Amino acid sequence: MRHFLALTWRFLRDSMPDRRRQRYGDVDYDWDYRVETTSATVGWGTRFRGLLHAPYQPVDPELFRAIMSSLEFDFTEFTFLDIGSGKGRALLLASEHPFKRIIGVELLPELNQIASVNIQKFSSPLQRCHHIETVRGDATQFIFPPEAMVIFLFHPLPEAELRELMLRLSTSLASLPRPIYLIYAYPAFESVIAGFSSFQKIAGTLQYSVFRHI
Ligand SMILES: C[S@@+](CC[C@H](N)C(=O)[O-])C[C@H]1O[C@@H](n2cnc3c(N)ncnc32)[C@H](O)[C@@H]1O
Questions:
Q1: Residue of the CA atom closest to atom 26 of ligand 1
Q2: Nearest alpha-carbon partner for 44 in 64, 70, 15
Q3: How far, in Å, from the CA of 210 to the mean position of ligand 1?
């Protein structure tokens, strides 16, 4: 009951006009690329569900580009997978690199529907991968594709669910070993990943960590 009241309070506070105005702080990318990825326009039902799982927030383009430019391997061999892809901003940013393909998994239907529209209308001279798809579903039940992957996590899951995802990924890798890089932006539960000895941290700052499967 206490948890529910705390969530309701957080939801009501976030619904105030000043908070909504603050959320428009992430809108520059949308102006530049004529898409709709801001957190400011998320409907109240989806926002409330977001508080129960992980609230929607699009990744900061500057941070995403900084992370990608720190990686030094041939992207053409890899699929990019965004766990909790929201309205698809990370998918669009990933398409600036020559990935084999790009996949997003998103729990909430409203966000996933908007991501599909964004993917269709996205146009950028920087785009180097045109094979982008999004799947609506629970990432902890997702069946990982049988290929080399760069997996992107921007705070998509609470701690217990992240552990569940990592267990599933480890099982998939045990039955079919393949190269995996894992990017964790704002790594609040990094200790969960560090607990899997087959993942080694190879780079990072306070804002992100990169792990490689060994
Ligand atoms: C912080 S947002 C990140 C959005 C996107 N990755 C980006 O960087 O622009 C986290 C997203 O994870 C989604 N999410 C939460 N739990 C999930 C789950 N179990 N399966 C799939 N997506 C989930 C939320 O709905 C939200 O859209």
A1: 56
A2: 15
A3: 19
Cα of 74 to ligand 1 centre, how many Å?
27
Of 67, 108, 183, 207, best ligand 1 pocket probe by most atoms within 8 Å of the beta carbon: 108
Choose among 58, 62, 123: nearest CA to 86.
58
Q: What domains can be seen in the chain, in order of their start residue? A: 2-52 (no CATH), 61-213 (3.40.50.150)
What's the whole-model pTM score? 0.92
Whole-angstrom Cα distance, residue 37 to residue 42? 9
Cα 121 to chain center, whole Å?
A: 20
CB-defined site of ligand 1, < 6 Å? 50, 53-54, 56-59, 82, 84-86, 89-90, 105-108, 111, 138-140, 154-157, 161
pLDDT digits (tens, 9 = 90+) for 33-60: 999 999 999 988 888 888 888 899 999 9
Question: pLDDT (tens digit, 9 = 90+) per residue, 87-128?
Answer: 999 999 999 999 999 999 999 999 999 999 999 999 999 999
Q: How far is the CA of 58 from the centre of ligand 1 (A)?
A: 9
> Is the model's pLDDT at 15 over the cut of 90?
no
